[in-house]
Design a protein that fits this description.
By secondary structure, the chain is an all-alpha fold. The protein has 5 helices and no strands.
Length: 100
C-alpha cells in the first residue's frame, strides 16, 4: 500500500479497524489507492452511520420510549384497593392470653 494511504489510515482508526475486519480491502487499495471513497462508504454501512440506519435507530428508540411511558401509565393506575393480594386475614388470637 502507498505511504500516503497508510498515513491517512493512521489518522482514521475506524477505517483501519474496518480494513482489519474486511481484509479484501488490502487488495483493493493496493491495486487502486483512489478507491478510498468506496472504503469510507463501506465503513459507514459497517458502523451503522448511514442516514437510513440512523433513522431506524431513532425510530426504535422512540418506540422503546413509548412503551416505557405506557408501562409507567399502567403502573400509575394500580391503586391500593386494586392490589392483587388484599389484607383479608384476621389477626390470630393468642391462646395463652385467652383471647385478650
Amino acid at each position: 500500500m502507498r505511504r500516503e494511504l497508510l498515513e491517512y489510515l493512521n489518522t482514521r482508526p475506524d477505517l483501519k479497524y474496518y480494513i482489519r475486519e474486511k481484509p479484501e480491502w488490502y487488495r483493493k487499495l493496493s491495486r487502486n489507492p483512489f478507491s478510498v471513497s468506496e472504503l469510507e462508504e463501506g465503513a459507514k454501512v459497517f458502523y451503522g452511520r448511514t442516514f437510513g440506519q440512523r433513522v431506524d435507530r431513532f425510530h426504535q428508540q422512540l418506540q422503546n420510549f413509548g412503551l416505557l411511558m405506557e408501562l409507567i401509565s399502567v403502573m400509575g393506575e394500580v391503586k391500593q384497593d386494586d392490589a392483587p393480594f388484599p389484607n383479608d386475614f384476621q389477626p390470630i388470637q393468642d391462646p395463652l392470653n385467652n383471647g385478650e
